[in-house]
């Protein structure tokens, strides 16, 4: 069974030594009292919960899966899941980042995110039960009526109830404008909602008393397409005025999907039959309200793959040091043993370091974006909030797509380190690969992310957001320009920055001629910009490591070696990506559809 | 459920229009009577068997898996598998490429391989039952005593019995020199064999009366390491002198592995307790004898991923033409529908064309190598046999590693085309991905393949084999040098040829200093040479397509478009690979083992 050690040292390094998040957070009045010791203590306890309670249930949960009782429509998650959830609630963990007004602890999102990274490492399928709740919480917090907030937020905050997002229908996922679920207004101000939803994560389970569904549906007089979609809150059990549970509502799980991975999460087909709901936000403005959830969910999905990359790395590294097989080509390294540990083989190290560099780079980027989101939400300076918001908007699709694509590569490499054993369930490595695969699909496929980045976030404002972020990179390059020891990191970073500027202009020009050029270049382009952000954070981490390596703490030595690996072996992927992005639309569209 | 259409037209194009395999085969006396019509007719019938008998069992076989009865040690494969195998035997398919002396049909291997491609597309897990037999057949055919051949080959040829390869043990896979299974000589000339083997594909099942295991074990006085390994044939039931079945032998399935994919194939833990076996070949020369199986198996594994790439492509292309979602960025393409079919989106086409170009390129390379193997085995010219043998040796690790890595990329892309549905079992796409994953591992991991290519096959003979193959490429480049229409294919091919020469020399020089440099560069290097071979065959296919496109047959138009896609979007991967291969050993070895 895989092991998991919470990477607290690396989290602290990123938070306190590289990003100085405490100083950043203190600019926000509501976080004025935050300090590093509090953050570290919370994460230490959170890490224990992840490693001791959740990790032991990951393999067994995958093997067992969820069970649906077709008569009661009740779903039973795998053994131990309900008990783990009870501990989660008992520990107060659901409230970590929630609003004190509703019983939350009001800690910064950046702390909650690192806690989630650890839970994702330990058990992605379990973590999706509370994870989806968080989306429902955010959405009601931003758009709910005072009554809705009073009814639902305290229970979501305490974790007594969980939440879902009901968007997808059989015929529409990406294209929500096509959805058909109907909401009919009633005399009492509620709506009766009828339709069929699919792929509803944590849609039904017995771990809590009530499940709060956020449902997209169409009003009778709604305009066609995405401008006619409204958002409703539909509880599994109706809630009486005194807060007690009323009758069972007409929203049922009609089937569970059999999936490649995340077996332990109940992925439900939900049927709504005159289910009673109340409107969230304005009529026909449901998509915008839903996007509050969606952006948080996209960051959350990147975080899932970050967690999987970390845990896959840890287990592969341990195996590579333990498993003996063959001798090094350069001669025996462990002559006292029957063979050398496989970590002596350069390609085994390459696979391990790929995962490590992607995990640590992803952690730096994700932590940076999380603290920026804290500023976007809570800074007392409006300009600062706006600037932070723009930066989060720019970097969200990169976190979603780049980190999940990297997670797929990394977990597959880590599995490969195990040879044939990697393919066998009991070692747990193949589960990381299967679980990682969904992260490239849900909450907007990675192709959708790349269109969002290039089309909307970059070309859509003439590159303004990218330029602002580019200025931060340029300032860092300038600052370190005379630092001899930093040249190996700064030069390729500066070079890639120039190339991104050129490439962006070039694609922008082509897109004037034919907007499909954006679609042809977007996926390659996103990975190029992903590498630019990773190169930036790797250079910043290297700077700190260089300054501190004299301390003798080997943590910094390892950090520097991983940084060098990143620049030597991973960043060069951009050489290909820039060429293929440039190759443009013609080779993709030349073939007639009928000939496929 | 996925559909499968045997790609007969493309097979015929490669065989008869590009490679002229009939002319090549006629140089071999035993294939002097072969003709294109016979080959086409066999493949047409074989395609029907694959599509009509095997394909319908793929999804259900994956869901059901195999069952072991722990008291009888018998394994029951999924429903329908036994009946399908009976049809396979009834149709005479096992005998296709086998020696007429033992009841075989004596058809060229290239025909058998294309038949296997189709069976792999339809059902990789099922196909491994007869597939492993073929390895046992080859090994006994090459190294068995006349008695062993008379006893086993007719039954393996008819398919009445199947075979296995028992190599791996819990503590050794790649490093077979460490194996511990013991063989003790008996007075009657047999051996009693005791030990534990793992990962034995098709190790036990009820589809045939007897299973013939080829087992690596160690004689009592054997030298240590790989020079002390002998090969034995160990039947499940002993065979009486009259050919009837005798007592049950001491070789049992002790457990089935729970795996990521190929669920329907029984991957067995085999226990040998004083199992009676006879020696195959010379004592202590078992590894060499086993390598006859191994090389065939490596080509077979490449062929598995070729099959999966093809079938994944077919289903993704059909889905992309059918599924409507969003509008093209350049405006509606199917205004009469609620949305455009997703094939209008450039990145969907990129994913599809990646799979298509890898399937068609892989088919050309594999077919070329198979017909070359026919020449290596059956040419009446010794020089020709030697030259063919060298070329097969060079290209085998490329087929194994490059085609299986491509298969992983391609099946994952094809699954992505389905969005969320791709993650769901019933669509069948995620099974292709899971099944494809093992192909990168077994029969020598892809890292082992790359070391075999660069270390043994290329640097081991100072590049002689590579130079010979390079001369074929150079001759083609020269020949087409003045053909204007071919420049878009010839120029990048020639350029990559030059780069491979330079890169090979460079790594060779570094390896003199430190042999670990080979290990650091090998995986990237193999993909570079893989692209060189694909570029060569794509250029040859483009040449034929250019010549024939005036016929109006749209097959040639599609071939040319796919060729252009390959050169524009896939070949540029070499830009990165050459850089990372060059980055060498230092970034991999810098970090101390303890810091991982």
TrEMBL record, chains A, B:
Domain Acetyl-CoA dehydrogenase-like C-terminal span(s) in chain numbering: 471-592
Gene3D superfamilies linked to this entry: Acyl-CoA dehydrogenase/oxidase, N-terminal domain, Butyryl-CoA Dehydrogenase, subunit A, domain 2, Butyryl-CoA Dehydrogenase, subunit A, domain 3
Protein's UniProt keywords contain Oxidoreductase: yes
Keywords assigned by UniProt, alphabetized: FAD, Flavoprotein, Oxidoreductase
Entry-linked SUPFAM superfamilies: Acyl-CoA dehydrogenase C-terminal domain-like, Acyl-CoA dehydrogenase NM domain-like
EC id: 1.3.99.41
Enzyme kind, highest EC tier: oxidoreductase
GO molecular function, one term: flavin adenine dinucleotide binding
Name recorded for this polypeptide: 3-methylmercaptopropionyl-CoA dehydrogenase
